[in-house]
Amino acid sequence: MSDGAPSPAFPAPASPAPAGLVLAAGEGSRLGRPKALVAVDGELLVDRAIRVAHEAGLHPVVVVLGAAAADVVRSAGLDRAVVVVNDGWREGIGASLRCGLTALTDQRAAAAVVLLVDQPAVGAETVRRLLPAWRDGAVAVAASYKGAVRNPVLLGAASWPGVMAQAIGDTGARGWLREHDEQVVTVACDDLGSEADIDTIADLQRLVGGLEDER
């Protein structure tokens, strides 16, 4: 939640950069509240993800809201983010991914780094590590942890029609990535944080404790 302090400036990159796509539409049924409205260190998770995208040089940054969208808009800073509301958020993450990629198609973005609102241990340095492979021509780039493909994922625009066709229910880009693994460059990010997400109160307590230990 904004404390009234001025937001730091994150200038648009001078050279072409991927867009940021923050998926923050879920209701957090197991957590008991939308994850976008959870605060860590006094910052809402949705604002944290937007900040990470800006700090990594992504432009523009689109955030997809759904459950309690009006409450999120009232409570969050949403600093310089393009807000899209996914009325079909109950379908699952697939609908939010399609919604966000459609918005970025309209903006003629060349690529998008997909950030999930419930992964606060993913920082800007993790995102930045994906960018060189994309600039070298990779269609898709994914962070890996212990050798397994995880988030965040960078998707070049050429992949979006296929990704959207397979993004159904609670499946996001995972199906497309598995079927097109020869087009996916994986980048090890074990040393930069964790892909762990927040589904329950116990997850939140564990992750917050881990973030405090890193400081």
Rg estimate, integer Å? 16 Å
Helix content: 25-40%
Can you tell me the residue ranges where pLDDT is under 50 for at least 5 consecutive residues? 1-15
The secondary-structure element order is: EEEHEHEHEHEEHHEH
Q: Average pLDDT across residues? A: 90
Please describe the structure with a list of short key phrases separated by commas or semicolons:
two-stranded antiparallel sheet, globular, seven-stranded mixed β-sheet, alpha/beta, 215 residues, 7 helices, single chain
List the helices and strands and how they pair.
Layout: E1 19-24, E2 39-40, E3 43-44, H1 45-55, E4 61-65, H2 69-75, E5 82-85, H3 93-106, E6 111-116, H4 124-135, E7 140-145, E8 148-156, H5 160-166, H6 174-179, E9 184-188, H7 201-214
Parallel strand pairs: 1-4, 1-6, 4-5, 7-9
Antiparallel strand pairs: 2-3, 6-8, 7-8
Helix pairs in contact: 3-5
